[in-house]
Amino acid sequence: MNLLLILTFVAAAVAAPFDDDDKIVGGYICEENSVPYQVSLNSGYHFCGGSLISEQWVVSAGHCYKSRIQVRLGEHNIEVLEGNEQFINAAKIIRHPKYNSRTLDNDILLIKLSSPAVINSRVSAISLPTAPPAAGTESLISGWGNTLSSGADYPDELQCLDAPVLSQAECEASYPGKITNNMFCVG
Fold first, then answer.
1. Could you tell me whether strands 4-5 and 109-113 are parallel, antiparallel, or unpaired per DSSP bridges?
2. CATH architecture of 4-174
3. Which of 65, 69, 168, 183 has its CA 20 to 30 A from that of 113?
């Protein structure tokens, strides 16, 4: 299976651009250490996910912006100190200058870590795709989002979901008038 990383910001911004931006419905508990680029953004509590893209940079969703963020790397269960996590404060937080909170257009955020992450079996960077994914490409989505389509169940353990990239027509049909050229849908 050809898996393409659908970065956390993409999954949050485009799979369901408004009410459903924190959902990971129909997934499964990820095998521990199987998604070493997945990070938890924390400000006293987990509030968003992101992806480590180099030793010192994380990408996330623009709607996850806070003025102070601690990035937690090597997490699996966000409620348990498992002993191998790295907690690194953000030195710089850059939201796309054309981010629109109403439409979620340009929903991307970069975080520079105050010190480089230590790369090991639990923490490593993921390469960014060089081109947009084609419709039908199998993708891996991961995070600690709501696992219910209605109601709320936020898991402590990292969730994974394998899902195809949808065509632009399918995406626009699912969310009429809400999809921009900066978005694509998965699911």
1. unpaired
2. Beta Barrel (2.40)
3. 183
